[in-house]
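fyi for ur records
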Amino acid sequence: MDVARLIAAGIAPTQARTFVAPLSVACQKFGITSPVRQAAFVAQCSHESTAFTRLEESLYYRTPERIRQMWPSRVPSLAEAAKLCKNPKALANHVYAGRNGNGDEASGDGFAYRGRGLIQLTGRANYRAATQSPARDYEARPELVATPEDACLTAAWFWASHGCNQLADTSQIDAITRVINGNAMAGATERRELFREALEAFS
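which gave:
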């Protein structure tokens, strides 16, 4: 892993320099060591984090229609969605309540454990599971996941613990996308293109 390869994979120089060291550490720790594994990992992280520029879920939505589109089962009406517009905290606490180890809406867990990191770690249970040591207690200090070091570590932990190394070995990019994004498969075409670009850079 080096800056030149990250740039060749489509990462801007500033982000490449910022992330090269923590990426290298995280990849080594979680067995993301072959060119194809690194290419698949960097490609997926790039898509999820807008080329390593976003480490925290925004949840700022201007229109009720968009909120309904994103969470049709959690926000069943436009009237309800309208109350959540331009209010990230209320939206997160509503749509993430009672999921992935979060408490109810009043607990505030939805906002506290909103998506962070290179592969949007979401939910109290996932923050707890990703914790590697007392110094990196993500359940107690969820904001750590939005720093480059911990964004890389939690993404690599998620990747390895969900079998993505093995999927990468045979270039099963759509299967990896499904692991990360679920059946929505958002951005599947771009993820494939990013993988091809990254594989050329890392090979």
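The chain has two domains: 3-55+145-202, 64-112. thats all i got for now
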